Structure formats: structure tokens, C-alpha cells
Amino acid sequence: MTFGCGKPPGHVACLGKWGKGRLVSASGDEGSAGRGLWGLSSQLEAEQERWFAWGPVLIGCGIGAYFSLSSEPSLLLALAPLAVVLAVWAARSGRGTVERIIVSALLASSFGFALAKVRVWTVAAPVLARQHNNIEVRGWVELIEPRVTRGKRLTLRTISVGDLGADARPVRVRISVPRVPEGLRPGQVVRARATLMPPSGPAMPGDFDFGRQAWFARLGAVGYSLSTPVVEAMVGADAAPLDLRAWAHVERLRQMIGARITAALPGERGEIATALITGERGGISEETNDAFRDSGILHILSISGFHMVIMAGSVFFIVRLMLAAFPRIALRYPIKKWAAATAMAAAFGYLMISGGAFATVRSAIMISIMFLAVLLDRPALAVRNVVLAATLILVAFPESLFDVGFQMSFAAVLGLICAYEALRESERWRALMERRWVRAGMFIGGIVLSTLVASAAVAPFTAYHFHKSQQYALLANLIAVPVCNLVVMPAALVSLMVMPLGLEALPLWIMGWGIDAMVWGAERVAELPGAVISVPAMPVTAFLLMVLGGLWLLLWQTRWRVAGLGAIAAGIALAPTLPVPDVLIGRDGELVAARVNGGELSAVGAGRSSYELERWLEYDGTGRTLEAAAKSSGFACDGIGCSAKVKGMALAVSRHPAAFAEDCRRAAILIAPIVSPKGCSAPKVVVDFFAVRREGPHALYIESDGHVRVETVAARRGVRPWSMPRPRRQDTAEDATRSAALD
User: Fold this and answer.
1) What is the pLDDT of residues 350-400, one digit of tens each?
2) 209: alpha, beta or left? (left if phi > 0; alpha if psi -120 to 50)
3) Domain limits of the chain?
4) Which helix (H) or strand (E) holds 4?
5) Which residues are CB-contacts of 106 (< 8 A; sequence separation ≥ 6)?
6) pLDDT, tens digit (0-9, with 9 covering 90-100), for 217-273
7) Which CATH number fits domain 132-240: 1.10.287, 2.60.40, 3.30.70, 2.40.50?
8) Which residues, at least 6 apart from 217, have a Cβ–Cβ distance to it below 8 Å?
9) What is each CA distance from 424 to 209, 306, 421, 427, 561, in whole angstroms?
């Protein structure tokens, strides 16, 4: 029983914590300690140890508020809330508990809002405004990524792009090429003629926004080249920037490691081994990716905390074991701290050779904080370490809040740590763990428990982002995780250690055997009936309720944490309530999907836009295949257009001016991938080439009263730096020529 004394207005002089967070006054008057906002103050005082844990959550709220705006605020306006709250904090910091927490929450949120704006401002770079065909690109090679069937993909730091000036030239471009020159290495200068276009936006309103992700990577254009790039000699002003030269050495090391791996392990086994060691997954076939995804073990193919813990943990164990073999050293020096320092260095080295992807950076930060806790004689696995890692990442990269890997990795780690903390505090569990047979069974039991907890923690994110649910993830993890823990990753570590000596063949062969076992397990589990269930898209409100409920349940310690279950239940109840669009129109106007034949999506013009249709079907959550939707059942088509009935309304897709007169007269919804006819006022909605060019993909909702509500990607994205304004009708010579020809 401990007491903390003070004289805040409206509170008792001294408060103490009794039992599980129940507050009493020093005089024993329990009721007086709960005064103020119906006892909220005392409840918050009881949770004081966990206030810090809400820091990154509140910073994330501010970041989310910034990105939800429909227009870009000025830098001064973005910083103004932070300045105001700081002034309030300085003036009223000595008030009551509830008031101080409210001001602190506003301070963290406004800080996150300002962080996001500053980050957007600092990474600002030109983005290509329109497509350029057969344009010459010169630049330094930053990244070479293999592709299974499509050659390779190059990321270039540009030197020149056609005749574009410095204010319009993208900093980076990414192009797919059929082949690369022999011996091409990062840091070299190449020249190629390519078709370049701006990074694409969402496939439908509210979908994943690649354009926003590219903005933060300073990727201003993507495209392809049909010829092999030409390597140029670097002279004079073409010397690569210092950061690129430094990173080029790392990339060359990664290339060398990848080449040594595939030489010892030819075929897809070598590609998977390369992915687990260097993070390069481009050589893995789509069939294998699908098997790992559908079985619920795709996380094994992506370097993350799981691999980092095995690698760094193995180094920690080996170094400590070797030092313990020398009693003179073990008894005189802190060998545990030495092992932790060595493991931190190993984690940094693994981060470098793995490519430095966001997921790996997050994992390296988290494990470094845990080993730092060992160096400071603090518990390594603690909620505060996870909170500190999340805070550091959000401060450095605010956009990572929307990264699926960030969300899922922290949800899984937080769930696991909180679950094991609860078990450690349970007297019954501690008594059970004293039995030898229980400890012996904890290897398999730990995998089962960890899989169940992690699966529950990431379930809302999987459903919201991927619209899928893997039903046999527990079975797949029981097969793959022991193999990965005991065979694959230890063999990978040994192969890296002996690779400078040229002795990597044997450990890589052992690693290949383990990879075969994991692939076998993934394929067998993915083939089971009902292995994957499609989940329809859910409202953002439902998703946020589930996330908030989970955080409330995990971050608080006293009994009011169970209120989080209510928020989770409310989110689950709201999940099926999202209205689905009745008509969807692709970004070029050629692809049109309508809800016909009992509500199933059927599409016309899917030949060149299969990705968009695939995303629409995932959003729909019916499990319908791309081939079934592309059969155009429900549409009546001829040489000049197609027609269908959607909720009793006539839908017409006019593909030739000869169809305009009839379609304009009888259709309630007219879609024209070409210029729409002049004076066509009978349809309720007309969407033509210029509309999709200006507004992006469209989603149409037919209301019960016959009104047609139109949502567009441009309206949902708003006027932001990564959402370039679309050209208006006849803004370009190409549009003017097209319009004149059809008029």
C-alpha cells in the first residue's frame, strides 16, 4: 500500500493504490478518492503506469486527422494547433488529473498533425503530370529487382528525363525492362527509352492509394521499357551522390549474396532463401506466394520481427554460450550485456543486407530497444519497449501509420506481450509452470498460443485491408514455425557466417530442405476446403472501433479494460453495413462492372484492366473469380456497345458514336469511354472519357428512391500533394484532337 500526496483542487490530500487499482484516501475514505467526473479521475490515477502507452496512439490520431483532410493545409496552419496547445499546457499544467490528461492528449495529437505536415513538406518532389511515350531516361541505378516472368525492375535516381526541367523532373523513376546488361550494379548510370506515367491512384474510391505511398518514396513516375538499358560511364557532374554511393555498396553486397545463394540452391528454393536472407522476393512465383498467403504463413516470406528475433536471438544465445564457457570471463564481466551488444550489431547488419524495408526497419528498432533494455538491466519484453519503438517510427515516418505491415506487426507484438504479461501475473499459471511436463510441452504450446493471440490481434487488419480470412493458419504455423525456427533461419545464419570462406553450400542445402518442408506444408494447408474465406469491405468506423477496442483492452490494466470488448463487438456488428457500389468504372473508362444477376459483379472491357477488377472483387467479398466476372454475363453486347439492367435502371456502355442516339434516349446511366454526345440530358448520370480522366475511377450507388449517387477517386483523395489535379476537358492537345475527331 503506497500513498502519493499533493493538493490539486477538488481532490483529497493523499491517494493510495489498494489491491488492483482501487483508490482510497489516507484517512480511509474510499468515496472521497473517486470524486471528479464520476470517479474518472481516480480510475485514471490507478492507470498512471500506462499513460505513456497511449502516446503513439494519440500521435497516430493526429497523423490520421491530417491525412483525412480534403485539402492541404499550409505549414503555418498545421503548426498552429501545436502552438496553441503548448500555450495551454504551460498555463494550466497544475490542474486536475482529467484536465491534465486531456491537455496531454491534445498535445500529442497536435504534435502528430504537425509531424505529418512537416514530413510531407520535406519529401516534396516533382511528380509526372501526364504520360510520356518513348522518352529518354538517364539515371543512377538504385535498386535492381528480379521478376518471375517480366524481366527485371529498375529504380533510378534521375539525371535527366527527356527535356523536363529540374522543377518538373521526378527524383526517382521505376521502370520494368525485359533484361539488364550483364554485370549491372547499383550506382552505375544507365540510359533507356521508356514509357513513363504518374504513379497510379486507387482502383476505386477509398482503396489503397499507391500514389500517396510513392510520394513519400519520392517516386515521381513509373513505366516500362521494351529495350535493354545502356550503361554509361560516370564522368564529371555525373558522379553519384554520397548517400547513393554508400547504399550502392550495400546493394552490391546483397546482389553477391543472392548470387551465391542461387548458385548453391537453384530454382525457387534459392529464390525463397534469397528472400529470407536479403529480403528480395521478386523471384518467388505467384503460386507459391498464394499458397503461403492462403495458409496464413505469408509472414514467413517477408523479413520482419519473426526473422529478426531468430537471427539476433541466435547471435545473443551463441555469444553468451561461448563466453560462459570461460569461467574467468563469465564470473568477472557482464557477458549477458556483451551478448546483447553483439546481437544489436548483428541486427543492424541483417537490416542492411535485407534491403532496409519498412517492416525490417521496424523490427530492427524494436529488437534494438529490447537489447538496450538488457544493457540497462530492464525487462526486455515490455509494453513500454513496443510503445517506444512505435513512437520512434511515427516521429520519423508518420506515413507508416497507414502501412499494413506497421499496423499488423505492432498489433501482433502488443497482443503477444500483453498476453504473456497476464500469464506471468497469474498465480495459477506460475504454479502450473513449475511442473516439468508443462515446461517440456511449452514449445508446441507456445506456438499454438502465440498463433492464436497474434491471429486474433491482426484479424481486423487482415479483413479490412485484404478482405480475407485464413481458417487454418494455426495448422500451417504448427508445421512451418518449428521448421523455420530450428532449421531454416539457423542454417541461414550459419551460411552468412561461413560465406566469406566459400563454405556456404552445406548450410544452404540444409536450409533448402527446411524450405521444401515449409512449401509442402503451405501448399497442403492452402488446398484444404474452406482454407480461405472472403470478407466484404467494412466501414472505416467499424474498423476503428475494433482497433480502439483492442487497444483499450490491451493497454489498460484495471477492470475497466473490459469495456474494450464492447467496442470490438460494436465494430463487428457494424462491419457488414457498408453499402456496395452498383456500378464501377475504371480509370480509362473501358472497364465497367455492374451488379447484375442477383447482385453479382459482372464486367465488360476487362482485358487491359484486370488489376482493377481484381481489387473490386476483393472489395465485394463474394469470392467470385476474375474469370467468372469477366464473362460479361448479364450484359447484352454488340459491336458498338453493351447494355444491362441494374436495379431496374437501364445501363448503357457506348463504345462508338453510332450508339449515342439510342443509348442517350433510353439509358438512365450512360458510360462512354469516348467523348459523350452533346446535348445528351436524358440519362441521370453520364460518365465519359473526360470524366474518368479528370476524376479517376467512379463508383455509382442507386438509392431506393431512384437517385444515383456518384463517388470518385478524385473527390475522395481531395486536393493533396500526391493527388495531382486532373486535366479539365480539352486541356491538352491530345484531348482536343480526340474531341474534334468524335464531334
Assistant:
1) 888 887 766 677 778 878 888 888 888 877 667 888 888 889 999 999 999
2) beta
3) 1-43, 47-122, 132-240, 259-534, 540-574, 583-742
4) strand 2-5
5) 81, 85, 88
6) 999 999 999 889 999 876 544 577 888 888 888 888 888 998 899 999 988 899 999
7) 2.40.50
8) 172
9) 42, 22, 5, 8, 18
